[in-house]
Amino acid sequence: MSNKYLGPADRQLIAEKWAAYASVREIAGLVGVAPKTIYEELRRGSNGTLDKNSRKAYNPELAQRRFQESLRRRGKPLNRTRAANE
Could you tell me which residue ranges the Transposase IS30-like HTH domain spans (predicted)? Predict the structure, then answer.
C-alpha cells in the first residue's frame, strides 16, 4: 500500500499509544500525519465501548477492516478526458 493510507503497522502503533493514554497530537507526530487523521482513525476503529482510561476503545483490526470495506465501495475512477469530450 502507498504512503497515502495508514497501514496495519500504523494502526497498531495508534492502538498502543492510545491505550498508553498518549494525546492525539503526540500520536500524530509519531505516525507523521495530521491530528485530524488520528481523530478520523479513532472514529473508524471505535466499537462503542470505553477502555480502561474511560476513553473510546480503539481496535486496529476493526479500523483496518472498515478501511478495506470503504475502498471496495469507492468504485472505478472516472475517465475525465472522455467525460470532458462528451
Answer: 2-45
The cell 503497522 sits on which residue? 9
Structural domain including 30 reads 8-85
pLDDT of 12 > 60? The answer is: yes
HSE, CB side, 13 Å, CA atoms: give it for residue 37: 17
In whole angstroms, give the CA distance from residue 25 to residue 33: 9
pTM of the model: 0.79
Answer whether residue 74 is part of any domain: yes
Whether 5 shows a pLDDT value over 60: the answer reads yes
Give the confidence band of 85 by pLDDT, cuts at 50, 70, 90: low
Tell me the one-letter amino acid at 17.
Answer: K
Residue 32 lies in a domain: yes
